[in-house]
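User: Teach me something about this protein's shape.
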Amino acid sequence: MQENKNIVVEQSGLFGNLGLGDKFTIPDNYVIYFEKEQNKELSLYIRRNFKMLKSKFAANDLNFIYFPLISSSSTNIQELISYYFPQLNYYLLPERVTEHFNEKMLSQVFNNFQEEINFISDKNEYVPSQIKSEEFLNLLDFKSNINSGLLFFKYDKGVIGVSDYFYSNSNHDYELFFEEAIKYIVTDNWVDYSLGDNMIASFLPAIDYTEQLDDDAKEVVQELENKLADLKDSGQLLFLIPVLKDLLNKQSQKIDFNSISKIEIDYQNKIQLPYFKKEVEMSHLTKAIYFLFLKHPEGINLKELSNYRKELLTIYTSVSNQLDYDKMSKSIDDVINIETKAIYTHLSRIKSAFYKIMDASFAKYYIVSGSGEEERVVLFNTKDIIWNNFDRLTPEMF
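Assistant: First, the predicted structure itself:
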C-alpha cells in the first residue's frame, strides 16, 4: 500500500478488459467514484462541485464518472450491439440487451430526478443516498480494502481512498484530496522502453495495405464509432457492460465468441451470413469478383488475374441480369487489366460491404486481404461456404 498526504493508494488487478473486445473495455481515461460503504461527506462534495471536478479531470485527459449524475441519451444500443457483436443476432440478444439497458437507464433517470429535487430544495441539509456500486465492483473483481473513493485505469490500475492524515485534520479540504489524486494518476509510471532497441519494433504503427473504404461505408463506421464514443463519454457504458455480461454468461454455452458465421450463397446469388443474420449486398460485378476469390482459397496474384478471365466472365454472366454479352465482356477486360486499376475499386467495395454491417474484428475474415499487386486471399475457411449455385459459376471445360 502506498500512502501520500491526503490520499491512500492500492494497486489493484482490476479487470479493464472484460472479455468483450477492445471496443467494450473500460476506457483507461475513466476515473470512477465508488462506494462499498457510504461516504456522505465525499459524495456530497462531489455533488456540489461536480462541474468543477469534471473540468479538472478533463484538463488532464481523464473522464470523471459519478454514478448518480450519469444521464440518459438516445444512443441506439441495439444497433451498436448488432454491429460490434454480430453473432448475438442469432440468439436475438441485442433486443434483450436494449430492453434491460433501457430499464436501468429509466430507473437511473428517476433516481437522478428525485435526487436533484432533494438537492435543490434543501441544499444545506441534503444527504446523498448511498451509491450502488456492488454490481460494477464485482464485474471488476474488486478486492481492495478501501471502502469508498476513486477507481482509476490509467497506467497501473488501482484504487484511491481518503487517508488517515486527511481525516486527522480539521479542514477536511476535499479539493486537496482530488488535486493529489489527479497528480498521482497522471504521473508517468511507464518504463522508458526507448533505452532498449529490442522494444522499438512493438511501437511501430500497423499499416493497412487493403483498399480504402468507400464514402458510404466510412460514414456508417464513423456514425457507429461516434455513438459508441458518446456512450463512453457519458458513462452509460458502465450500465451497458453489466447487462451485456450477464446475458452473455447466461448464454455462454450457446455462443462461441471465437466463431465466425458460415457463408451461404443462395440460388439468387445472395450472400447470407446465417449466424449473424446478415445479408452482404454488392453490385453484380463486385459480387462476381468476390465469388472468384472465394472459389480460390489458395489466393490469386493480381498480376495473373488475366488467367482467370474465362472463369470470371462465366461467374459474371450467371450473377448479372444484363443481356448485353459484349458489354459484360468489356467490363471483365477492364477488371483483369491491372493498369486500369478497376480491380482495386471492386476490392474496396467488397471491404466496404462488410464494414457497413460488422466491426473490423469480424470483417477481416471475409474481405479480400493482401497488398498491392501481390497475392490476394479471403481468410475465411472455404469448408464453411454453402454454395447453392456452384455449378452455374463454373465454366465448361474449365
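Now, about its shape. Residues 2-199+226-239 form one domain. The chain has a mean pLDDT of 86. If you'd like, I can walk through any region in more detail.
User: That's plenty for now, thanks!
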